[in-house]
Backbone:
């Protein structure tokens, strides 16, 4: 009875005709030889699959793109968080203008002003040296430091102070009775 199991046979194809040595794997079964689809050590000979260097190049390209995209995304995210200060100070301006129309003065406490915010806030808003809300970032509590919030009979300056990223710098915004919104200290690294 003939052996029907497949055996691996290596031959030096081309050496007989004086060509350079090229190892080829052949499967031998019952006297017949059949060429495999894989070369030596299991590497594809027909071009299917990826080599290690190709995979390393792809990983390097992804790493470079991530190195560029992640910092840009974090800056974009921090700038989006600054909109809370702009919206909050716009609300204080509107409330203060309405208070001035009724009382002909901007001198008021935050409670008399009637402005309040809800939700989790990143900024602590201040009016006339007092805090409007007490939910600002723990490292950035209190009124603004560059331009202190004041209120007089004819004008006011309100402030917002918060930490929008993980560094020690506080983001500070002010608005006045002329609706001039100014970023006194910018916490977003450019």
Residues:
């Amino acid at each position: 009875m003939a052996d029907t199991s497949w055996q691996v046979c290596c031959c030096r194809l081309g050496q007989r005709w004086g060509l350079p040595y090229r190892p080829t794997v052949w499967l031998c079964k019952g006297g017949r030889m059949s060429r495999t689809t894989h070369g030596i050590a299991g590497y594809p000979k027909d071009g299917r699959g990826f080599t290690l260097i190709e995979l390393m190049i792809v990983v390097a390209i992804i790493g470079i793109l991530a190195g560029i995209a992640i910092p840009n995304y974090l800056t974009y995210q921090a700038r989006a968080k600054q909109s809370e200060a702009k919206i909050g100070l716009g609300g204080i301006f509107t409330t203060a203008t309405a208070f001035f129309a009724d009382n002909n003065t901007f001198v008021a406490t935050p409670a008399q002003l009637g402005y309040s915010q809800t939700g989790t806030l990143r900024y602590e808003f201040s009016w006339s040296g007092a805090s409007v809300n007490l939910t600002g970032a723990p490292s950035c509590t209190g009124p603004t430091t560059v331009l202190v919030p004041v209120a007089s009979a004819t004008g006011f300056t309100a402030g917002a102070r918060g930490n929008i990223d993980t560094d020690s710098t506080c983001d500070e915004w002010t608005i006045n009775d002329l609706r001039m919104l100014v970023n006194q200290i910018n916490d977003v690294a450019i």
